[in-house]
Write a structure and sequence with these properties.
It is globular, with a radius of gyration of 14 Å. The longest helix has 6 residues. The protein is α+β, with helices and mostly antiparallel strands and 88 residues long.
């Protein structure tokens, strides 16, 4: 925990790192999920899109069918701050 001693944990998404398992997913055909949080056996999948022209994201069907996905979220320049501060 010393790594985080200078961070205000009440204002960062880092809190969910402490209570969730974190994953990245990619197939041999290069389909991928940028960031995945597992909590209580359910997954939340995140795609990070900084190019505003590419925010129409389709999560891979193979991922959605293979796992217990609770929610899919696209993080953009317009909503990243909400995501980072979600646990305040």
């Amino acid at each position: 925990m010393a790594v985080f001693k200078d961070l205000d944990l009440n204002n960062l998404h880092i809190i969910s790192f402490l209570i969730s398992n974190i994953y990245f997913w990619r197939t041999n055909s290069q389909q991928e999920i940028d960031y995945i949080e597992e909590s209580d056996g359910a997954l939340t999948a995140f795609e990070m899109k900084w190019n505003q022209k590419k925010v129409n994201v389709r999560f891979p069907k193979s991922f959605l069918e293979a796992y217990n996905v609770k929610e899919t979220i696209v993080i953009t320049p317009n909503n990243y701050l909400d995501w980072v501060t979600a646990n305040t």
